Structure formats: C-alpha cells, structure tokens
Amino acid sequence: MINKKVANVEDALKGVTDNITCMVGGFGLSGIPENAIAQLVKLGVKGLTCISNNAGVDDFGLGLLLQKHQIKKMISSYVGENDEFERQMLSGELDVELIPQGTLAERCRAAQAGFPAIYTPAGYGTEVAEGKETREFDGKMYVLEHAFKADFAFVKAWKGDAVGNLVFKGTARNFNPVMCGAAKITVAEVEELVPLGTLDPNQIHIPGIFVQRIFQGKNYEKRIEQRTVRARN
Amino acid sequence: MLDKTGIAKRIAKEVKNGYYVNLGIGIPTLVANYVRNDIEVEFQSENGVLGMGPFPFEGEEDADVINAGKQTITTLPGASFFDSALSFSMIRGKHVDLTILGAMEVAENGDIANWKIPGKMVKGMGGAMDLVASAENIIVAMMHTNKAGESKLLKKCTLPLTGVGCVKKIVTNLAVIEVTNKGFKLLERAPGISVEEIKKATEGTLIIEGDIPEMVI
Questions:
Q1: How many Å apart are CA A163 and CA A3, to the nearest integer?
Q2: Do A101 and B54 touch (CB under 8 A)?
C-alpha cells in the first residue's frame, strides 16, 4: 500500500507558502474543501493565485481568504454573490481572470491528463479570445487554451481511503475530480476516511494515483446558498 | 403582452420528446414547470447532474444536490451525477439538444451578449460561452426591451459578446422571432400585441411576411 494518509490539515498543507497557485474545488459552496480553506486562513499566506469556479460568499468559502486580502489573483467563471470580491476587483486590489466554465474544467483536465493545451469553441469572437491563438477545424473556429500550472490542488470528497481513492457525492463532485493530479501536490479532504478495502474498486471516481495527501476532514458546515423547497400537499 | 411565466410557457412548447435540455438561470428555469407531461425530457445542469427533478420538500434539502443556480434540487429515477469536465463534454460535444438562456442583447445575426456590463456588472460568464459556442438549438428568453425601454433586439450588440452568430430563436414578452441570415423574422405576436408595436420595440431588421399569428399558449 502506498500510504497517502496524513494526520491532520496542518500536515496536509505543509509546504504551502506565499505566492503559490492553487486549485480549489467546489461549485458555489457545494463541495468546497472547507478544512483546507480554514487552514490557509490560519497560515496567513498571502499573494495566492486561486483557480476556482467561484469565489465563495462574503463570509464563507474563498470569501474568508478575500476578507484577509490573501488572494492576489482569481481565475474563475462566475463571481457574483460576493460584495467584498466586487469591491476588491473594482478597486484594482484583486486581479481577476474570468473564463468560460467549460474552459476552466478543461484547462484543469488538460493539466491532469498531460495535454499542454486544448482547442475549444467557447469564447471565440469574444474578449475571452483576445490575444489567443485561434484555428479553424472543419469550418468552425476554436481558441487555444493552455493547461493550468498549479502548485497545490485542494479538493473535497465524500469518502476516501489511505491510498487516496476518492468517491464524491451528488453535485459536490463538480470540479474536484478534474483538479486531482492537475497540480504538483493534490490534497484531498474527505468526510469519511474509510478502512482500506471498504471502497468497491468498481465505484472509485478518482484513483489514488492522482492524490498525494488525504486526511479526515472535520466540522463540515456544508452551507446551502439558495435553499429552495416546495410545499407538501 | 406576456409576463415571465408566459414566456416560459411559450418556450415549453419548443421542448420535444426525447430532448436533453439545459436551462439557464431566470426565466429559463421556469420552463421546466410547463413542459407537457406526456413527453420524456431530461434536464441537464452544468454543475453536474442529468435528470433534475423539482425542488425538495422542506427538511429534505441536501447541500450536495444543487443546480447551476445553487438552488437545492432533487433528482428523478435514472438521474446521474458527473464532474464538470464531463458536463461540458455533453455541452460542447452537442449531446444536449436544446439550450434555453437569458440575454441582455441579441443582434440580428445571432450574436448574443449576456455576461458583462463594463464598469457596472462583472459577475462572469459561467457556462454561457460554452453553451452558446456549441449548441445547435439555442432559444433566448428575455424581455423585448430593457428597463429604460430600449430595444434588446439590435442590429449589432453594444455589450461584450458571449458568442457569435449562435441564437436561433427568441421568445420575448412581445413576440416569437427566428434569427435568419437576413435578420429577425417575426413568427408570432404575443396576445394583444400588434405588429406595429413589435416593430417599434425592435431596433434590428425585422422581417414581416404575410399575416403574423397570435401565440397559442
């Protein structure tokens, strides 16, 4: 067994310094690595470049790092629902690169899969494609988008084991699997770290080869951004 | 004139049996409520679910099961979850049959702008650029004019584009319009709305051929 298990979040984030580039899983507040984010706040590291679909809300998720001015640059597809983010962006304190959501996913996946770049139709003819190489295939235009280069990927899964195998739950899966193995070091936190052999090999979403460190997370809040319900009748 | 629900009801008629449909945020989300129940349709949400069901009952919300608008949802029998890369493989790979989304502006050549107002609103494009770049069948749901009363159906978009030459059909509070290579072709009028009123509210080239029927909703 190649053991990836570390004792706690402190050990999991060893080597994190100022000015690193990190991928952070999640869609909205669903499936975010809550423990890793809390530890980044505690470490007080600054000048971070974060690759994450969203930027959290004012008082949770990556919003916690924004509050402390720890993020230098955000690479995201959608950043609404965060007043502090908007303030920092408009005042120029925060550098923001907005890219199409599918492109964000595929630039992660390219890094994971060993592709230097990919061609996508998304953004052709828009300001997203400005200054980028374009090329025609079968009469349609595509934009060349490069694989991300990141130091750390912080992901969150539902279940995992000591070799780093991961299983996700519901739509909390989102960007987490494509970020695994897409950075130099992938740190996975899980709601349930289960004994080796418990997970069915047929049902593994991400094999442990893509994960360098795994730990049992704790105190998950799992906040809901838009609680929508229907009446019983 | 239609309200938002009316627009959603009219668009629901465009949803055909066997379709996989992606609904944007806002009016498009309402479309799911009005699709005929004698046809089989699956709703895809870009954050990684196919086979979306209605909102959960109070007390049954699950933080791990949401839609692209971050609302709590349920899934129907046969549903599946997947990661963001696979979700956009469905979208860019043209496996989704129909995309319905909102817009701030549409141009007569099918260009669409719906993600940014420079200096004012910069929230990002989310999945909209991927959706419009690939979908074969894109319907825009929007009001015909903005809050200042200005037309949103233009000769040329003034806001930063989301995609070029991609919109096929537009359903507004006033009309159903097809985007052709000669401009906006008026197909139907909203109840109680005259062709003249639609002409007045449309800045781009409006093609009117023969009698324009009133929408049946």
A1: 5
A2: no
